[in-house]
Amino acid sequence: MTTKPNKETTLENIYADLESGIPENKSIKEYALPNARQWLGARFVAIWVLPIFFIKKISKLYASSAFIKPYSPSNTGPSYKQPETLYTALKNVFKGNDYLRFFDHRFIGIWVLPIALTGIVFEILLIAPTNNTSPFS
């Protein structure tokens, strides 16, 4: 088997690890069918690599799409020393280094305030004149 673990789990890497542990039988290769190594070798024996690969992919997907994450203090909290835009506040979130927490300052800046302002504008411009009333009454 190889001594260096592969950083990326792909089918080819799993097959290569298994093939490195199974010695090649050269006598079969000499007298058998033209492609005997392909169907008698490690790849034929290692059909069970597919469930391992798919279980790993499903577990990664499940871990990455966890809706509720336990609270952990963020190293990149709100900075009041310098002006911060939504882009600079969310740069690490989009890179995957940080999380967008519910009712965090970035969450409020992206979802709560724009939707509230949109609702206020619709109430003043569309709903109140249509009902012939004053806004918010």
Description:
By secondary structure, the chain is mainly α. It has two domains: about 10-65; about 70-135, no CATH class. The protein has helices at about 10-20, 25-30, 35-40, 40-45, 50-65, 85-95, 105-130. It starts with 10 loop residues before the first helix and ends in a 6-residue tail after the last helix. Keywords: Membrane, Transmembrane, Transmembrane helix.
Quick one: how many beta strands? 0
Please tally the helical runs, counting DSSP H or I stretches of 4 or more residues: 7
Strand-residue fraction?
A: under 5%
Instruction: Kindly report how far apart the N and C termini lie.
Output: 75 Å
Number of domains: 2
Order of helices and strands: HHHHHHH
Shape: elongated
Residues in helices, as a percent range: 55-70%
Sheet with most strands: none
Summarize the structure.
This protein is mainly alpha-helical and 137 residues long. The chain is built from seven helices and no strands.
